[in-house]
Every structure is written in C-alpha cells, then in structure tokens.
DNA sequence: TGTATTATACTGACCGGTCAAAATAAATTG
DNA sequence: CAATTTATTTTGACCGGTCAGTATAATACA
C-alpha cells in the first residue's frame, strides 16, 4: 500500500523530469506531468502538496543521483589519477545520457535565488562534490604527485572547473565538442593540482 | 523623434532587467515591465514586437555590456598579470554591482536550450570572452611568464573557470565569500596558465 | 488638424488547485 | 466464500485568477 504510493511518487517525479527536459522547468504544467505519467490531472495533487513540492523533490532526487553516481565511479579506482579520470568521465559520461540531467539541473540553478529550499539542496550537493574533490586531492598528496597548498580551495576549484566546462559545453550543444571539453576539463584540473609525473 | 524612441526602448529594457532581477526571468509580466518603466501596459507592445522580443534584446544588451566592460578593464593594463587581475576584478567587481547582472545572465543561460536566438547571442558572447583570454595569454607568452601548449584551449579553460566560480559564488549567496571566490578563481587560472614568477 | 504616442479596457487562452463523483481495492460479516 | 460495507485512489469538470496581446479611446505634439 505504502509501496504503491512510493511507486506513484517516483512515476510522477520521472514524468516531471521528462516534461522539464522537453519543455523547460518553468513551462511544465500539471497537465504535462499527468500526460507523461499517463494518469489524470488530479493525481499529482493527490501525492504531492502542490506543483512546487514536486519540483523540490525532483531537484533533491537529481542532485543526489548525480552525486551517488560520481562517488561510485571514483571509489572503484585506487590511484589519484584514476579517481580523477573516473570522476571527469562520469561527469561527461555521454552526450545523450547526462545532457538532460544537467540541463534540468541548470534550470534549477537559475531558480535557486528565488527558492530557499533549492538553495539548501544545492548547498548539500556542493558539499558532496567538494568531498569528492578532497578525496582525490588527499590521494594525490599521498602519492606525492600533486602540489596543493590549500586542499579546501583546490576542491572548490575542481568543482568550479567542472561546472564551468559542463555549462559551456551544454550551451554550445555540439556533440563533437563533448570529448574536447572532457579532456580540457581534465587537463585544466591537473594543472590546478600542479600534477607532476 | 527616432532619438526619443530609442530612449524609450532603453527605458523598457532597463525596466525588464530590473523586473527580472527581482522576480526572475520567467515570472516577469508585461505589467511588471510597464510598472518598472513607469509607463502603461500598451507601451511595451508599441516599441517591441512582443515580450520575447524584449528579452532577446535584453540578453543581447547584457552580454554586450558585460564584454565591453571586461574588455575596457583589461585594455588599461600593460602586463599579463595586470590584465588578468583586471579581468577577474571586473568579473567579481562587487557583490551588489554585478550579482544582478549575472543572475539574469544565468536565467538566460537556462533558456538557451529552448531558444535559438539566445544560443546565438551567447555564442557571440563566448567568442568575445575567449578573445579576452587569448589576449592575456599572448601577453604572458611574450613576457615568458606563462607556459601554455594550446592557446585556444587555455582561453576556453579561463572562461570555464570564471563562469564556474561565478555560479558557485552566486549559488552560495554569501557576501563574505565574494573575495574568496575572486582570489580562488584568479589563482586557479594562474595555475592553468602555469605561471612562473 | 492630423499624426504619433500613451492609457485603458477588453478578450481569449491557459493554468493551478479543488472537489464531487466514480472506480477500485480492502475489510468485514453472515 | 460471497455479499456488503468501508477505505483508498483516480478522474475530469470546474472555478478563480493571471497573462499576453489587441482594440480603442485619450492625449500630446508638430
């Protein structure tokens, strides 16, 4: 019973995500969500307080999912370079696979200023990202292949570089550039960490 | 006559900008624009084709203005480091002064995927940004203080770092962090350019 | 006076949220 | 186990309200 309700909530979140990738966050209507979920219009308001509640939960779901996938990728690697490479490869996993995720994420980012819940969710996401950065840096310092004065600052810089690259790539929207931005991002981070072979 | 019309158009663009900073791009109405411009509702439709036309011109205006101010700042400097510092200082000019600009810019970015005009405007903006990066890099190479393999790639990385830092700063929305992100951004770019004293 | 500009009222489309009724599932009972 | 009652879920029509765009009236100005 509670299980079925949980299923429905996931179904509606997925529908909202799909609608957002196709129409853009702001222009998604309750009717769109219902259509993508193949239910009638009233259902969304039965399982969620209101439309904004749907999107708050969606934002939380997306950022958590991005982080978990990234964390899983780097934990499979032993070396600092391996971890960093896995991290960047995960971020730029494939044009089709994550483009929608980050597009919707960008939609949410542009709303953060108007919504304290979003701000909090994103703050948590950042902290997760920085912890990934720290893990890679610490590993590299142990291996004595990085030269980093301020670990915290470097971890922040890593995520700046990733987000900046990702956004510039998204904005140009050219499948050919996918590899280019991935390697550019990777190599720039190596320089920020003053990698020495 | 044509001069007055031009004035009115600017007035409306500014009003649209102000409305966007306060209410967020998507929720700005024609009435809002009219209110901020201190005119009646019909005026906007008299000087612009429609609402979307207003925002397209606003986006163009904002990106052009950001670029021009950045370009002016770096051209006042002679050395590579001076130029880079002026560039970053201009980007992070002051929390209040440019926060609104970049917030609205971020609003537009999230719309790029749904609007080819926006995409084109942003592409031009990027090209301007990269040209600033190239100028700084060339200067640094002449001075022999940078070590850059691929100038184009480095110029792109610079803007990735700037946008990434800017967005992360905007999302955290803490006045105290302004200086922190400015210096972090500056120092990271120096490392990307492999600056040697 | 006539043209350009601005103000105001109006229209039609759309949207979020509500709600009563219908459908379905679960529980109870004889 | 079947009949009946009760609880849960789903439907879609509907309402109040908003908005973009239009039409028209009023005003300024040359």
UniProtKB/TrEMBL annotation, chains A, B:
<dbReference type="InterPro" id="IPR009057">
    <property type="entry name" value="Homeodomain-like_sf"/>
</dbReference>
<feature type="domain" description="HTH tetR-type">
    <location>
        <begin position="6"/>
        <end position="66"/>
    </location>
</feature>
<dbReference type="Pfam" id="PF13977">
    <property type="entry name" value="TetR_C_6"/>
</dbReference>
<dbReference type="Pfam" id="PF00440">
    <property type="entry name" value="TetR_N"/>
</dbReference>
<keyword id="KW-0804">Transcription</keyword>
<keyword id="KW-0805">Transcription regulation</keyword>
<dbReference type="InterPro" id="IPR001647">
    <property type="entry name" value="HTH_TetR"/>
</dbReference>
<keyword id="KW-0678">Repressor</keyword>
<dbReference type="GO" id="GO:0003677">
    <property type="term" value="F:DNA binding"/>
</dbReference>
<feature type="DNA-binding region" description="H-T-H motif">
    <location>
        <begin position="29"/>
        <end position="48"/>
    </location>
</feature>
<protein>
    <submittedName>
        <fullName>DNA-binding transcriptional regulator, AcrR family</fullName>
    </submittedName>
</protein>
<dbReference type="InterPro" id="IPR036271">
    <property type="entry name" value="Tet_transcr_reg_TetR-rel_C_sf"/>
</dbReference>
<dbReference type="InterPro" id="IPR039538">
    <property type="entry name" value="BetI_C"/>
</dbReference>
<keyword id="KW-0238">DNA-binding</keyword>
<dbReference type="InterPro" id="IPR050624">
    <property type="entry name" value="HTH-type_Tx_Regulator"/>
</dbReference>
């Amino acid at each position: 019973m509670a299980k079925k309700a949980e299923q429905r909530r996931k179904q509606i979140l997925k529908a909202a995500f799909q609608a957002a990738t196709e129409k853009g966050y702001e222009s998604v209507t309750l009717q769109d969500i219902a259509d993508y979920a193949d239910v009638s219009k009233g259902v969304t308001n039965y399982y969620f307080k209101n439309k904004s509640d749907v999107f708050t939960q969606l934002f939380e779901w997306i950022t958590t999912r991005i982080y978990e996938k990234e964390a899983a990728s780097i934990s499979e690697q032993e070396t600092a370079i391996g971890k960093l490479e896995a991290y960047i490869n995960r971020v730029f996993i494939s044009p089709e696979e994550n483009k929608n995720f980050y597009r919707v994420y960008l939609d949410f980012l542009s709303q953060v200023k108007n919504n304290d819940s979003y701000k909090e969710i994103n703050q948590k996401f950042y902290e997760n990202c920085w912890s990934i950065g720290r893990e890679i840096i610490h590993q590299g310092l142990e291996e004595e292949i990085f030269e980093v004065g301020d670990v915290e600052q470097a971890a922040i810089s890593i995520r700046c570089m990733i987000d900046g690259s990702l956004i510039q790539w998204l904005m140009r929207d050219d499948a050919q550039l996918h590899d280019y931005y991935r390697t550019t991002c990777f190599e720039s981070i190596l320089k920020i960490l003053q990698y020495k072979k």
